[in-house]
Amino acid sequence: MTVIGKSVPRLEDRALLTGMGRFAGDRNFDGQLHMRVVRSTVAHGRIVSVDTGAAAAMPGVHAVWTGADVADIPPIDLRPGSALQDLEKCRQHILVQEIVRYVGDPVAAVFADDPHRAEDAAELVWAEIEELPPVVGLMDPPGEFAPGVSTEPAVFEKGYGDVDAAFAAAAHIVECELSVGRHAGVPLETRGALAIWNDAEARLEFHAAAKIPHTNRIALAALLGLELDQLHLFEGHVGGGFGVRGEIYPDEVLVNLAAMHFRRPVKWIEDRMEHLVAANHSREQTHRIRAAVDADGLVRAIDDEFWFNQGAYARTHGATVPTVSATMLPGPYKVPAYRAKGHIRLTNVTPAGTYRGPGRYETSFVREGLLDRIAAELGLDPLDVRRVNLVAPDEMPYERPFEVGGKPIQYDSGDYPKSLQRFLDHIGYDALRRDMAARREAGEMAGAAVICFLELGGDGPFDDVRVEMAADGAVEVVTGVASVGQGAETVIAQVCAETLGIDYAGITVTHGQTDRIERGQGARASRVTVMTGNATHKAALGVRAILLETAAGLLQTAAEELEISGGTIRVAAAPEGGPSVTVADAAAETLRASSGDRIAVEETFENDRATYSFGAQMAAVSVDPRTAGVTVERFAVAYDIGRAVNPMLVEGQLVGGAVQGIGGALLEEFLYDEAGQPLSVTFADYLMPTAMEVPDVECLVLEEAPSTTNPLGLKSGGDPGITGAGAAIAAAIGEAIGRPGSVARLPVSPMRLREILTGPA
Amino acid sequence: MKPAPFEYVIAESWDAAAALLAEHGDDAVILAGGQSLVPVMNFRLAQPAVLVDVNPVADGAYLRIDADRLRVGALTRHVRFEAPQVGGPLGALFPRVARHIAHLPIRMRGTFGGSLAHADPASEWCTLARTFDAVMVARSVRGDRRIDASDYFQAALVNDLADDEVLREIELPALGPDWACGFAEFNRRAGDFAIVQSVAAFELHDGRIVDARIGIGGAAEVPWRADTAEAVLAGAIPSASLFEEAGAAAAESVGELMTDRQASAEMRRDLVRVMVSRALEDALAAGVER
Amino acid sequence: MTRISLRVNSVDHDIEVEPRHSLADALRDRCGLTGTHLGCEHGVCGACTVLVGDEPVRACLMFAVQADGRAVRTVEGLDDDGAFNALQQAFHEQHALQCGYCTPGMLMLATWLVERGTPVSDDELREVMSSNLCRCTGYRNILRAVRSVLDGAGS
Question: Measured between CB atoms, does A694 come within 8 Å of chain C?
């Protein structure tokens, strides 16, 4: 019996399919106040005064806070290890103290007995703001954030090898400028927060936590001046994460502070317009990149300089996105010498954080775009250029000799060329290319392209799991992770069930409750299955050993002779119908003998290496030459996940990620006018794909190269669907219009594509 | 995104609605399907003191052929135009236009009259109304007032209705069997407001175009009638090159093209050319099928 | 405050609302039925889709007072004493949900389509379901799930 590797349906589904979910907005506490945040309507300015009188006088209004009321709360910290140079000097206060820096910057907070009345009152808060000139464009010259602090607070370099020598000796040098626009995760559920001061326990409780409850507990306690045991976080259902939800923003801190201060429950549900200006944006970067190349397309060196738009403030992710961008740009290719110089810039737009596949979506587009240019300029087949540069299987594990977090990057396993070939066979690449060529011959603009990418995840440093079994055999897995809708409970239950020889469907998986387990790393960076899966395996092995020892006594045999299957322990070598004991009976006997009420084994899985996996994507598109409209006809993803715990869920991640990535490639972008006014503040302006804009995404889940970083051989699977999607769409459009490598900016809106079509060849 | 408070009143007849408007003046707003108004209220961009719900008005939703006129009750939901309701070339055009309006649940609530009252520059029904010289019939306590489409659309989201008038019926010409009608639209996602759209129609006698109508939406602040392009068609035999010529004439004719982050004025001009020629192709194809 | 009566999933709810309360707000806050979710409150995402009478409605764009006396169906009314109906079962088996936030709206829209009882082409299925946004699934499995029920219902 085995359940790892089976596409079993999810444990999470029942509540979600019957309307019994417990999302942030679904929770209420008696006597709760509703918060409404008043936000700056100008991009840059100095607050002269904030008049709260009319708002405070409205019926139902309990209080109105301005910056002065929360002046003792420090600005929100960057996550440990994510700061760089002057970034820490550019943190955000929970309410503006003096200077507003983007449209959406929180200026005041209204607390009222009803959400409608809170909004009525918020309209009456009048902030007089003396406008200052904004910096809106990423490539505009930097200004001053504060005296002595530049709006380019950090410039860093990553690299290895002799780049200058490689360029001096290069047969060809290919260079280009490539940019990605401003996108965000935009989950269907907006953010929300609900905090209550629990008098009986003398503690603050923050409900509607997400993503990284344990990490946020530490950070929030520090901000609020609480001891750690005075604060607990509780995760309910989470309507999508994608990197953006579950970070500490001003709003969440305000809710907790108000619950402490007023000793009343305080609830806040973000509305959609707020979400689009207040929650983290991501992606926006511009690269000026050049490659030193041999005649056959082999890249000898890459030299890249790039600029990342951090928006108005440094937020919790610090320098994470630009750092990952710099280190992941070489991707699955050898690139013997490499230099990246990153500029982190602040502008008067919404601050940035991570979005699914951070640093990889962007640099996959940049790198693959560069390879398409190389192919075009050298007259080579674009796929041949990729093949000649891929890391070879005999080079595994492959070391990329720059350091991240004090360690060199090491690609753990994979046969990249073989995986690529399997994908090409799977999608019928040769026939597809012939078909597209024939259509172009007939006058159509149609094209298909395959690009390669590298994914990382399964990030440590540790995960704790406690597996508990009651006397009736019921199992609870207590973890420090979180669920953002990805299917974490099911996958963890599958690993536990596999190890214990029981049914996965009866296992309860607890996550995101800081009062149930001391430490936790949450659900970030595509890590849950790898880290929590292995910790679960380890703890379940401990429970298994205890059960087998008891059963060995009952069955008068040695524990090593026993096996568990289908919830029954029996002698492995004995015929059917031989002596056996159920898991539940063994548990009951164990607990009777020890006078305990639960068998509980807690284990830690530690890992200081990420998993690296190869993937490839194919897009087939047609372009209407007269409107510059793009139709995505086919889209396919291949990904080597090493070992799939639940292939159906892996496919779900690949398909969902791919569609988000197609959105970023063609539709989605946060735009601003010259004054820094946001132009994408509704779902009619921030265009996410509907079922009409995307085909049914095809998947090839490969299990070529199990990871060598963990006993179960697992690799990450949350992000790969999105990682190469921008690159694939851009490459396919380049093919379709007969100008490979011409797409220099995402998203490829009709207006931008029109410029390419009408511009010089 | 919760609306500001308002008083909610029901009108069960157009006269009752008109009386309420007379009483409340510009404090009152008519609620029909609500699919455009309510979002604007949720954004608090509209904060009417009184909302007059006309959904319960008796016999507010209909499509009637009355001599040579097609009368559309203002409360007729978009979805009703998706199934053949009336015969003739206009009846054949309706479904092809209607399915471009937003998404199905929106079409099941939103109304023909509501679209015209909202007067969005990219509204399919506004463009159609302008193309065929619709007459808007507005009721007030003073009685009915008939407003020609050429006078009705004044600016983006601005029409000729007075504060105390409610749009109750729209009259369209019941086109004869020799007319062929077509439609084309360009947008970035299915269901989005058009960046540019065109309604085109022509009357054929003995293989020649004897009369033509070309309307353009989304390009300018108000729906545009391209009479120079209509003149290009008059007397000519339909062909791809003729339609291209008409498209080019239409593109030249539009003054004051809108510009935004989706499409520059220059891009809109190109799109007018393409959409007009495609709407004409669509008309020709529809005509041949008939 | 206005007193209205909603018949939700065959249960009468006599509730007090302000005219400005949306049907979604009334269902969630007054009837305690939080399965209907708000995703955008401007009629684009469709997460709040419920059936009023027999028609799918964006519950963020209808005021509760407009539904006075009407029969409303929400996601809470789909299962039979805890047993999934055919659509719920298909969503479960086809992995047609991840975070589950859009799911109630998707289910109610699909309910309308299935109950309509007329043949639905793949193109029409895609067009109808494109009324609602999903950010997790990429739609493929949602379309497959609804298709499987349409095929079952048609046979």
Answer: yes
